[in-house]
Write a structure and sequence with these properties.
By secondary structure, the chain is α/β, with parallel strands linked by helices. The protein has two domains: 167 residues, Succinyl-CoA synthetase domains (Rossmann fold, 3-Layer(aba) Sandwich), CATH 3.40.50; 121 residues, no CATH class. Strands 2-3-1-4-5-6 form a six-stranded mixed β-sheet, sandwiched between helices.
Length: 350
């Protein structure tokens, strides 16, 4: 019987049991053996693999000290000499996904097979799939932890043992922008005609090359005279009235809120909460104008640079938002703004 594969596992501070956003700036640390979801990973692996060490780091710390964390991870990889490196799964958490992808890339550069897992809408997926990383497709949140780890473990075992891999669909990973020639005994022309006939007859068929397409949104023309236009402030920063009366969630929002800002020259600390679960809210709570710059926009209004600012603030949460939900929320907000005669929107970056 083959020896169990030696696996190093990377997780963030939350899954490492250190805490939520308040621990997001925890620096990288190493712990012997499996931690958090790594224990379930070992159950899934059985006798085929064991987690020799777990790296834990806060998402915020990684974002602010990426190169430092990468270099430390490199040292741990060289020290522990794992046969496979696993990261996550990150599901739809953007910062977590970016960290998992970056560290898997470093492991691959050292010749260590790496596997991570994330939702197709995770920004880490868009960034690291073109770099040919193996990213197992997961559900949007940790409710899909076990099936995600089962697929990650299966792929990790194959890669660690140098076994041949099937297609992305067969193995469960997201397409990596890699094409392989696979002889199937039927010429391309015949396959193309057969596919065309099935399409013509209304029969089910599948393309051999799936191209992911997104709706193209043409930019609107520039404003001829901003000083005559009614502007609106819209934010996905999760900045809500004190107590969050509209119950906006910290992630995966399905609705938006509208707050009156008439007569306000700036947003006053203590009257607002920040519920967005994708960034450290400390700075926003200290000064809400850092995420919704009402003070700066009022100055533009007084100077005549813009015509007038709508006396309502539109708020939602972009963290881990699904594409369909964000499109729907955006369309609903746009309809409300059109009813109010708004001609331009300021959407500050979070």
């Amino acid at each position: 019987m083959a020896e169990p594969l030696r696996i190093m596992h990377y997780i963030n501070a939350f899954f490492g049991g250190l805490g939520g956003e308040e621990e997001a700036h925890t620096s990288l640390r190493v712990q012997e053996g499996a931690v958090g979801p790594g224990r379930l990973l070992e159950q899934v692996l059985g006798a085929d693999g064991r987690v020799i060490a777990t790296l834990v780091c806060g998402d915020g710390y990684f974002s602010d000290h990426e190169e430092e964390v990468v270099e430390q991870t490199r040292k741990y990889l060289l020290e522990y000499k794992p046969e496979v490196f696993l990261a996550g799964p990150a599901f739809r958490s953007g910062r977590y996904g970016l960290a998992c992808g970056r560290l898997c890339l470093e492991a691959e550069r050292l010749g260590i097979p790496a596997v991570t897992g994330m939702h197709v809408e995770n920004p880490g997926s868009d960034l690291y799939r073109p770099q040919h990383l193996f990213i197992i497709a997961t559900e949007a949140n940790a409710a899909g932890m076990r099936p995600a780890l089962e697929r990650m473990a299966a792929l990790a075992l194959k890669r660690g043992r140098g076994l041949p891999l099937g297609s992305a669909a067969e193995e469960g990973f997201l397409p990596r922008a890699v094409r392989r020639t696979v002889p199937i005994g039927v010429p391309a022309a015949v396959r193309a005609v057969n596919m065309a006939l099935k399409k013509w007859r209304g029969e089910p068929f599948s393309s051999e090359l799936t191209i992911e397409t997104f709706e193209v949104i043409p930019p609107p023309p520039p404003l001829a005279d901003p000083s005559k236009v009614l502007f609106a402030l819209v934010t996905e920063s999760g900045l809500v009235a004190k107590g969050n009366p509209d119950r906006l969630p910290s992630a995966a929002a399905t609705h938006f809120a509208i707050y009156p800002i008439a007569g306000m020259d700036r947003l006053v600390p203590g009257r607002w909460d920040a519920v967005h679960g994708g960034y450290d809210n400390t700075a926003a709570l200290q000064d809400p104008n850092r995420v919704v710059p009402l003070d700066a926009v009022r100055a533009l209004e007084r100077e005549g640079v813009i015509g007038r600012l709508l006396d309502e603030l539109f708020v939602t949460v972009g963290n881990m938002g699904s594409l369909n939900a964000m499109k729907r929320i955006g369309a609903q907000i746009a309809q409300e703004l059109l009813k109010r005669g708004v001609g331009a929107v300021i959407l500050p970056a979070t």
